[in-house]
Amino acid sequence: MLSEQAVPVVRATLPAVGGALDQITERFYGRLFAAHPELLRDLFNRGNQANGEQRKALAGSIATFAVALLEHPDTRPDALLSRIAHKHASLGVTADQYKIVHEHLFAAIVEVLGEAVTPEVAQAWDEVYWLMANALIAIESRLYQEAGVADGEVWRPVRISERRDETADTASFVLTDTDGAPLPAFRPGQYVSVRVALPDGAHQIRQYSLSSAPGRDSWRITVKRVDGDPAGEVSTWLHGTARTGDVLEVSAPFGDLVLPEGDAPLLLASAGIGSTPMLAMLDHLAANGDRRPVVVVHADRSPEAHAHGAELRELVGALPDGSLHLWYEEPGASGARAGLADVTVLELPAGTSAYLCGPLPFLRAVRGDLVASGVPAADVHYEVFGPDLWLGSEA
User: Fold this and answer.
1) For position 371, what pLDDT does the model report?
2) Is the peptide bond before 293 cis (omega within 30 degrees of 0)?
3) Which of the residues in the chain have pLDDT under 50?
4) Which of 369, 367, 374 is nearest to 393 (CA)?
5) Is-contact 156 205, C-beta < 8 A?
6) How large is the C-alpha radius of gyration of the chain?
7) Quick one: which of 31, 160, 241, 251 is 20 to 30 A from 206 by CA?
């Protein structure tokens, strides 16, 4: 909770700070990487820095948190904080790094806003920063404890025991412990980070959902090669270099888009490679003979582009009360609907909880349709691959 002295200052200066956040975050990252080039080389996603998405995500999270402090002073935006904390934990972020961020962020604020940053303004926004940072530090410390690791010590070697090309641009990798022991448990829907050494000496990290159920000795990730400019550094490396028998550096599992307990009806909706956490959920449900109603929606470009398409059909078919609804932009003779997914044509059981994963336009469209159809916003959960640019009322 903000102090009584800080509330009016933050409220009065929020428009100016919010309007300058793009400039502030751009200046911040420039200062940060000049002082600590190892953070760009070995921690931050260089692709998201190049295209500006990380700057937008940081600006959005700061603005959203500040607004939440003003509008709901007795509560925290836990959905936003949890999503960020899980991502940070998967990267091995530690408490001391928040001090580094604070130094360069506030220097950037002063550089951009100049004399408008009076001592009172600086102190008020210092409160905002440390309220958010300390909340994240506490959540991340708890996540490390639950994972059974020391703060930031999330990495372990795993061996690729099987590689399979699922589509022209998607490959799955079965991972096992290098000593043959069972890998740690996880919750269906969680992800791991993969850290690879690139030819230029950098270590880059990306998150990939675990795409099969827990309870086995192995994990499986499914990786889509990201083409374009910039191309995906880690996905390209994995597709071009990683082979059966190779050893990868992988984090403990994290992520808060997880299969809920109980027997409430479920909607699992995905698009493209967003199907991977849903596969783990469905695999778990099928393995346990779960009898709850499960409506599964998936959208893709074509049957040929749909990774694990046959597996998805098999898993849904194994559920006593499961139904599958497919949309392909180019359905061919697959029997799927043509075009983009449209959940408004489905009959959803009362009390359905929805879990979404896929590109941002898909998430926005499906969430909007669900809420308009009467599904409470609190019952619609989502996972974004990459920086979360969907902040504000949807967070």
Assistant:
1) 96
2) no
3) 389-395
4) 367
5) no
6) 22
7) 31
The percent helix, strand, coil of the chain (3-state, each to 5) is 45, 20, 35
User: Using the 8-state DSSP alphabet, how is residue 156 labeled?
Assistant: E
| Residue corresponding to tokens 């550089």 | 111
Among 129, 132, 133, 104, which Cα is nearest to 29's? 104
Tell me, what's the pLDDT at 77? 84
Residue 176 phi/psi, 5-degree rounding, is -130, 160
Residues 6+ positions from 242 with CB-CB distance below 8 Å: 160, 163, 173, 248
Dist. CA 153–CA 130, nearest whole Å: 23
Type and span of the H or E element at 110:
helix 95-113
Q: 29, 98, 328, 382: which one is catalytic?
A: 98
Each residue's pLDDT tens digit, 275-329: 999 999 999 999 999 999 999 999 999 999 999 999 999 999 999 999 999 999 9
Angle, CA of 360, 269 and 184, to the nearest 5°: 95
pLDDT value of position 393: 36
What is d(CA 67, CA 77) in angstroms, rounded to the nearest whole number? 10
Count other C-beta atoms under 10 Å from residue 149's C-beta: 18
Whether 239 contacts 163, CB under 8 Å: no
Strand 155-167 and strand 247-251: the pairing is antiparallel
From the candidates 29, 127, 129, 140, which is the catalytic residue?
Answer: 140
Active site residue 166: no
